[in-house]
Amino acid sequence: MTKQVQQLDRVIIRFAGDSGDGMQLTGDRFTQETAAFGNDLSTLPNFPAEIRAPAGTLPGVSSFQLHFADHDILTPGDAPNVLVAMNPAALKANLADLPRGANLIVNTDEFTKRNLSKVGYETSPVEDDSLAEYRVHALPLTSMTVTALADFDISKKDAERAKNMFALGLLSWLYHRPTEGTLAFLERKFASKPEIMKANIAAFQAGWSYGETTEAFSVQYEIKPAEHEPGLYRNITGNLALAYGLVAAGVQSGLPIFLGSYPITPASDILHEISKHKRFGVRTFQAEDEIAAVGAALGASFGGSLGVTTTSGPGLALKSETIGLGVATELPLLVIDVQRAGPSTGLPTKTEQADLLQAMHGRNGEAPVPVVAPQSPSDCFGAALEAARIAVKYRTPVILLSDGYLANGSEPWKLPDVESLPTIEPDFAGPEAGSSEEGFRPFERDPATLARPWAIPGTAGLEHRIGGLEKADGTGNISYDPANHDRMVRLRQAKVDGIAGDIEPLAVDDPSGKARVLVLGWGGTYGAISAAVRRVRRSGRTIAQAHLRHLNPFPANLPEVLRSYDKVIVPEINLGQLALLLRGRLLIDVIGYNQVRGLPFKAEELQGVIQDVIDSE
């Protein structure tokens, strides 16, 4: 059967089902093939915190949204053009996001009376008129999969589990996705279970064949590859990019990387990935708790490694005392906080950027720490390198604030030229540092950076005191002198403040130079803000945009930038933490726009906010 092929410039697909239906795997495979095809893309995985949430219930719904296009895109999309709903709960949980006229593929086998009643449906929405405004494709995906696998020596349960591969095959046909990568993946994944491997491959191929032969789908869609800057690309998540950035930091500094970590959602994948790269001098330690993890990392830094610890908000709170010890001992330490929705356990698998004030001030005493935040999944690589550079050069703990959206989301990443990566010089103190008449002065400071010497234990002549008690300026001896304490507090603050002279000025995107309103963001809001700004400009309005990577210290030109605009909008997925810092430190009023739903901003809602502010001028 010859079918019409319709060209599209972009598509947003959401796979949704029970948390045991393999929606994350299905979405990931579709994403990998889309990346291989050359489309630009952005993803949004969304899943329950429970390992196995209650089957068939609204809290148990897992979804994966993918936005792919033939042009540069910045977000996973506001609303799906296609929803694949594997059960009634998936339909009910996601239907409100589906625009009128969108395609809806429903697995009717799961629309039983029992499953419908679990989510409050009295009758099946597939059989009444409640879905009339959508293009509904009601398909018995489970039974079609079981029929396709009838000749395989597997249980009915295993056959039913393969329905996600049937759906993946159907969607791969519908949107002209390559298949070779998925087939190779299934061969690897189930290499030890040949019959299961063959069954999943058969289910995938059956879904493809169904799309090709059925009259239910009369149109195929084609989205051409995007035009990218020439180079070698791969699809990458934020956590994977962070892991690679840490490995690169070790190579570029010549320092062994020591990762002390306690598993915590959504940061655990960094530990999993780093543990695979021992050949680069990386060592991983899965500690018994968060305190042990950061203590081991700081101890590794004292011993001449670059100590790293990964966590999320609750773990950052537990690590605060040892981070303060790192401030007092003035040793490099990289603390990666992949933020999640709180407080307490909160929503562990949902995103938020509400740890900024904790990163800035969540320690006893005056304990200043540089704070760096990546803006996209691929930018996590460069942010890790930058955080490591600051930690080593200035002998200080550095907190890197990623978030759940960046950690689990993915996008194409152009592999950098290794030769172009920055060199990080540890500049260890040598024996000559202890050869003067005064002996080694462990808190004698570099006049340019105010950093103290980094002395490796065991180096002859460099023996010195270490610990959390206040140090005497220069000698490092224990000191209770009030004037000395005041001086040391101010020196540590001045060291962090001085980093502002060693970072790039804040760049402003203001093409016309006539904008009177600036949108200022930080962290993972970059994509949504940028997409909203594009929409506002297409409407004929002028708007400027800037995005902060360095949150402590701020770029030196930030006050000048903010004062050059009549109004500054600061969208944050918190209740106004950056806005508070800007008002308090710079005495500049800003307009906060805040939501804490566990989800990233939608470009459309930000567009409306920006236009309202511009139009009120």
Task: Describe the 3D structure.
This protein is of the alpha/beta class. It contains 20 helices and 22 strands. A seven-stranded mixed beta sheet has the order 11-10-12-13-15-14-20, with helices on both faces. Strand 21, helix 19 and strand 22 form a beta-alpha-beta unit. The longest helix has 20 residues. It is globular.
Fill in the keyword field for this structure.
single chain; 617 residues; alpha/beta; 7-stranded mixed beta sheet; 6-stranded mixed beta sheet; globular
In DSSP terms, counting alpha (H) and pi (I) runs of 4 or more, how many helices? 20
Name the beta content range: 15-25%
Strand order of the largest sheet: 11-10-12-13-15-14-20
Specify Rg, calculated over alpha carbons. 27 Å
Count of β-strands:
22
Estimate the helix proportion, in percent.
Answer: 25-40%
Average residue pLDDT = 96
Structural class estimated from helices and strands:
alpha/beta
Poorly predicted runs of 5 or more residues: none
Main β-sheet, in a few words?
Answer: 7 strands, mixed
Shape from CA axes?
Answer: globular
- The CA-CA distance between the termini, in Å, is 59 Å
